[in-house]
Amino acid sequence: MNHPATILVVDDEPLNLAVLSRLLHPLYRVLATRSGASAVALAAAEQPDLILLDVKMPGMDGHAVLAALQQQEGTRDIPVIFVSALGDDGDEELGLALGAVDYVVKPVRPAVVLARVRTQLEIKQHRDRLRQQNGSLEQALARQVDELQLAQELMLSGMAELAETRDSETGNHVLRTQHYVDLLARQLRHDPRHAETLDEAQIQRIVKAAPMHDIGKIGIPDHILLKRGPLSADEFGLMRQHTTIGSQAIRHAIDRAQRALGQRFPEDSPPESVRYLEVARLIALHHHEHWDGQGYPAGLAGEAIPLPARLMAVADVYDALTHERVYKPAWSLDSAEAQIFTGAGSQFDPAVVAAFDAVRPEMAQVMQGLSD
């Protein structure tokens, strides 16, 4: 059962208020008030479908009331019809310019008032219905984006764990490095140079992307990946390709995501799934770059190396040093920490190493809690 529309009538003259109320009451729920200030409060509380608003009132006039309504989120979309004895074209143009939807001149003609009210209520109903439909479409799109992002994360995380297990590392390596990167990023955020870059959203992207740093190992042959002992120059050259293999795989995932999402997002404001995948791509490609430019694959140096990759570089080496690999035994915690400090300014970003120094106890707890 449809409820009658609610109309708020505002006029400082009791007679005018009574005339309009009697005219509208048989068809609509009518609220009435004689002051501008109470009209603003009543509109916020009752959320009427339409307001008939006198222009000339003592204190807060109709123009001021309309301005106040437009400043509040809950009342700015309520249509307002000005009702005034000021009937020249200039007054009407001013009222419409201020945001009124219509203008009725006193003394009011009942048939005109009822027709104008009915028209504006129909327009509002259509607008509300369209807004509701748009909201439903936006919710459906958001669900699709969330589902796509979750599917990508699960797929890529599964591939990352598969890549790790191929060279005898365990899923715990993925979990440990995630925790390490989280600790390092949150500590580095205290550095004024990185506070703006490392907001909560970006830290979440980096942490979610961290498991994919070595996803490219899935493309490295077993005889190289599982070799016990040093790699030859040619073998090491092939091993280095895991950075570009991983980056290309994630690039393909980004392309698929963008095709699936179509043109719904502007280039300068991609959906979260694409932002996260781009962070993953940068980590996979550049986490073996060195601060002094002697790393691979691009030989980037200093801040040319993306910050997520600089964080992963420390996390990955710390985990590799403190755990056994096919080519080496585990190092002691003191030796591993000393190696990280030695690499500051050559292999690692000094600022990230400083963050590492501050969170060493927490990182040691993660290492022990998630041991293989």
Automatic annotation (TrEMBL):
Domain of life: Bacteria
Modified residues (4-aspartylphosphate): D54
Entry-linked CDD domains: HDc
Residues in Response regulatory domain copies: 6-121
Keyword entries, A-Z: Phosphoprotein
Classification via InterPro entries: CheY-like_superfamily, Cyclic_di-GMP/3'3'-cGAMP_PDE, HD/PDEase_dom, HD_GYP_dom, Sig_transdc_resp-reg_receiver
PROSITE patterns: HD_GYP (PS51832), RESPONSE_REGULATORY (PS50110)
Pfam families with a match to the protein in the record: HD_5, Response_reg
HD-GYP domain location: 148-372
GO molecular function: phosphoric diester hydrolase activity
GO biological process: phosphorelay signal transduction system
Protein name per UniProt: Response regulator
Organism for this UniProt entry: Ideonella dechloratans
